[in-house]
């Protein structure tokens, strides 16, 4: 809490809606100079909670910066905001570091849009909530900003409420392709393979589902589901479709590499692995996957090269995989490959 308040001190005022804490959060926030109110949201939904918190902000405020207690701005964000908030700006887009690698460097990062004008906006959807215009406008001025927000989540925190809220989101807004994709992904997270397959295919068939990176993700997830169900041919077919949808991103190549690995098709593993690691620029979109940008592509590629008799390649790519962090299995593989090369 102290970390978060310190991060937000550059604002003119800090307003918090407490939705039911029992650990003296309200008292501690008040002691730190925060304006805090409590309200129990029943039934729980994130958009209602955020809209209630927005009502706490004074009417004469200009800009609202919405963050959670596990998010921390890098210092200087206020100056960056004021520099970017030009005439006509209604919303800002800035970098969001969603997680960090074991060595402390940024992991998955993408552009974020939760900073907005005080008036004319409301939050929508029970979960994975987004800002919408209260006047129904479809387009408004979004400016790029150099603010950087870091996410430091509590790994023990349950995400059990997400699935029923996503099902409610799709029920309330069946035309929303983004929520349709999220629901399919959530079914996959829960190992509900058939439900995930049906939902992800539904997402791909929606006329509004046109953003290629997200379509590619649905195809990758379909590949993963079929792989879990033991249908390796269908898994590879969907991985290939994902590549065709968005060949400039690393993730579909890694999914194809993984599918080929499950088949013992070492020539294909080598081909897809080399294509994957050849993509070195990581786009700043939420759809990135840590697995594709970590040790896995190099590790799988190394084993394929060993199987194909390229021991030097196996050694080089295992050493590259180890750059992401020491691992007993990888170290054992490296010793084995070096023993073979001797």
Verbal overview:
This protein has helices at residues 2-8, 25-31, 46-54, 77-84, 162-172, 177-189, 193-205, 212-228, 232-245, 250-263, 266-277, 296-307, 311-322, 328-341, and strands spanning 15-18, 35-38, 63-65, 71-73, 91-97, 109-117, 121-124, 130-133, 142-151. It has 342 residues and is of the alpha/beta class. It folds into two domains: 2-151, Spore Coat Polysaccharide Biosynthesis Protein SpsA, Chain A (Alpha-Beta Complex); 162-341, Serine Threonine Protein Phosphatase 5, Tetratricopeptide repeat. The strands form three sheets. Strands 3-6-5-9-4 form a five-stranded mixed β-sheet. Helix 6 (177-189) packs antiparallel against helix 7. The longest helix has 17 residues, at 212-228. The chain is globular and about 70 Å long. It starts with a helix and ends with a helix.
List its salient traits.
342 residues; alpha/beta; Spore Coat Polysaccharide Biosynthesis Protein SpsA, Chain A; Serine Threonine Protein Phosphatase 5, Tetratricopeptide repeat; 2 domains; five-stranded mixed sheet; two-stranded parallel ribbon; 14 helices; 9 strands; 14% strand; globular
Count of domains: 2
Shape: globular
CATH C-level name of the largest domain: Mainly Alpha
Listing every helix as H and every strand as E from the N terminus to the C terminus, the arrangement reads HEHEHEEHEEEEEHHHHHHHHHH
In whole angstroms, the N-to-C terminal distance is: 56 Å
The whole-number mean of residue pLDDT values reads: 95
Proportion of residues in extended strands: 5-15%
What can be said about the biggest beta sheet?
5 strands, mixed
Counted by DSSP, the helix tally is 14
Q: Could you tell me the CATH topology label of the largest domain.
A: Serine Threonine Protein Phosphatase 5, Tetratricopeptide repeat
Q: What is the share of helical residues? A: 40-55%
CATH architecture of the largest domain: Alpha Horseshoe
Count the strands? 9
CATH superfamily of the largest domain: Tetratricopeptide repeat domain
Structural class, by secondary structure, is: alpha/beta
| Strand neighbour order, sheet with most strands | 3-6-5-9-4
Unreliable sequence segments = none
